[in-house]
Design brief:
Largest sheet: 8 strands, mixed
Number of helices: 6
Order of helices and strands: EEEEEEEEHEHEHEHEEEHEHEE
Structural class: alpha/beta
Shape: globular
Strand content: 25-35%
Distance between the termini: 23 Å
Length: about 290
């Protein structure tokens, strides 16, 4: 079963098919590629404001079709605020389907009898960071891309969270985790959204199938005596949610709790369900 967020007002998936998806981001209508959408479209799509075209040589370009399309604009999800802008690699700076996990994270943070400390790795523009800050957590946000971290800081300020307790740091994830272990710093919750391939700020190479278990094992050393959760998000084609669940089960062995896995997606106005990713979650049974 695909878990679909229900409470979006400023984002709508209108339809998906023929390798693309038609979306509404605030007042801006966008067509973007989506390899999962290899079924026919439900209806003829109206002219969008923006259309991302893939290049056969890699990457792609945006075609601007609407009048006065802004370079950046704002959308909201409940108490969270986001700056949206199209990037050169088709992304908009946000993954709306992740609202499913934001709600789960907020529930876990609010269940704590203390201010929980949360570590968010490969944290991108900070969707999960904002969700945890909103729920009262102390968040450490780590990403190797300085530009993404600047974007996350802007989102934190836009949401009115500048006075909350957080750190946003540009660093290689594994190196940071190992340094935190040496320092004796502990966390009540860990979030990670690892890429298939990646590079750290010093050019360090990352390959998911080679590095994920090593990273998860290193993160286990940072968990407090009474941890709340461990969440792995994934967008990797060719891997099953069960595989990520097995990694968490192996790493968390002996700590009790339970592991669950699932898919996240978006429900279109046309009735189509678009699969978007997967997750594995560890949590204490009594939280």
């Amino acid at each position: 079963m695909i878990n679909i967020p229900k409470d979006w007002r400023d984002y709508i998936l209108l339809d998906a098919g023929n390798g693309e998806k038609l979306e509404q981001w605030g007042k801006v209508k966008v067509i973007r590629p989506d390899p999962q959408a290899f079924w026919p479209r439900s209806y003829k799509w109206e002219k969008p404001d923006m259309h991302y075209h893939r290049s056969k040589s890699g990457g792609g370009t945006w075609e601007i079709l609407g009048d006065k399309v802004p370079n950046t604009w704002k959308i909201a999800y409940e108490g969270l605020r986001f700056n949206i802008r199209p990037t050169g690699f088709k992304h908009m700076g946000l993954f709306p389907e992740q609202a499913v996990n934001w709600q789960w994270l907020q529930k876990k943070c609010k269940s704590a009898d203390r201010q929980p400390k949360v570590l968010n790795l490969f944290a991108y523009t900070g969707g999960a960071t904002l969700a945890c800050l909103y729920a009262g957590a102390d968040v450490t946000h780590i990403d190797a891309a300085k530009g993404m971290n600047n974007w996350a800081r802007d989102n934190i300020a836009l949401s009115g969270f500048a006075d909350k307790k957080f750190r946003v740091m540009t660093d290689d994830v594994l190196k940071f985790v190992r340094r935190e272990a040496r320092r004796g710093n502990m966390y009540d919750g860990i979030i990670m959204d690892p890429p298939v391939f990646g590079r750290g700020p010093g050019g360090e190479m990352w390959k998911l199938e080679e590095g994920l278990f090593e990273l998860v094992e290193a993160c286990i050393q940072l968990l407090s005596n009474t941890p709340l959760f461990f969440l792995i998000n994934a967008y990797t084609a060719g891997f099953s949610p069960t595989a990520y669940g097995n990694i968490l089960s192996a790493a968390m062995g002996g700590r009790g709790g339970s592991v669950s896995v699932g898919e996240v997606g978006l429900g279109a106005e046309s009735g189509i369900l678009l699969p978007c990713g997967m997750y594995a979650r560890w949590e204490l049974n009594d939280t």
